[in-house]
Amino acid sequence: MDQAHRDPAIRVTAMPADTNAYGDIFGGWLLSMMDSAAGLTAARYSHGRAVTVAMDGMQFHEPVKVGDEVSVYTSIERVGRTSMTIAVEAWRRARHVDHAAKVTQAKFTFVAIDEAGRPRPVEG
Fold it and tell me: Mind listing the pLDDT tens digit for each residue in 17-62?
């Protein structure tokens, strides 16, 4: 994904409440932002409710600090009958600079569901 020419699915400022005891942002907070961004993409694409059913492993390339702007980018990689695989990247940018750095990436699998919580065809 080329983040320089795309709008992020989510952009947020990392805040003190999101830190661990060492002052870095919790990995779980970042994972939550990524899952939320992928969920927005899945719901929009499938025209309805979609739930996370799997995620591949993540590796953190560098920490996110308080005050960093975190941008999460998504792209749909695969669409099945009821499921979608969404590639997600998280980037950080220090508050007063232009340069952004990729923090992590993962692939999330979502299943489109109906009102009863059963899988439904992806309408795409």
Answer: 999 988 899 999 999 999 999 999 999 999 999 999 999 989 999 9
pLDDT at 44: 96
Whole-number Å distance between alpha carbons of 124 and 122: 6
Strands (E), the chain: 10-13, 50-55, 69-79, 83-93, 100-112
DSSP state of 95: T
Instruction: Give the three-state DSSP class for 76.
Output: strand
> Is the whole-model pTM more than 0.85?
yes
Of 3.30.250.10, 3.10.129.10, 3.30.70.270, 3.30.1330.10, which CATH number belongs to 3-112? 3.10.129.10
CB 90 within 8 A of CB 108: no
> What is the C-alpha separation between 97 and 43, in angstroms, rounded?
33
